[in-house]
Amino acid sequence: MAYDRTRLQHVSAGIWKYKTADTHATVDTAAYFNEDGSPLKLGDIINVLVVTNIDASNEATSTYGTHLVNSVTRGNPDVIDVSDVTVGVATDTD
């Protein structure tokens, strides 16, 4: 998969959420979030949910974590770089 702007949702000032089937290693690759007119700004936090079977009836969480927008260069397209993931831990004991 590639970056899908429709999956990036604004939560509050400087906070975003993004759902994808891509791994965190793919998401934090240089140029992943590049696009014309990107809403992302330096210092924004993106909470990323990685899922299996995206948008299917059996969609499930794979991993989640946080990426920080490290740099933004405005242009055509805007060049966005994000940090490596800070991994979250999901425990479901039932």
Give a verbal description of the structure.
The chain is mainly beta and 94 residues long. The protein has one domain. It is built from 1 helix and 6 strands; from the N terminus they run ββαββββ. The chain has one helix spanning 24-27; strands at 8-12, 15-20, 45-52, 60-73, 79-82, 86-87. Strands 1, 2, 3, 4, 5 and 6 form a 6-stranded mixed beta sheet that branches. β3 and β4 form a beta hairpin. It is globular and about 45 Å long. The protein starts with 7 loop residues before the first strand and ends in a 7-residue tail after the last strand. The model has no long low-confidence stretch (mean pLDDT 93).
Low-pLDDT ranges: none
Number of strands: 6
The span between the termini is: 31 Å
Given the helix and strand composition, which structural class is it?
Answer: mainly beta
Shape: globular
Q: Look at the structure and give the mean pLDDT.
A: 93
* Largest sheet report: 6 strands, mixed
The gyration radius over C-alpha positions equals 13 Å
Helix share bin: under 10%
Kindly report the oligomeric state of this protein: single chain
How many DSSP helices? 1
Instruction: Report the portion of residues in β strands.
Output: 35-45%
Order of helices and strands: EEHEEEE
Number of domains: 1
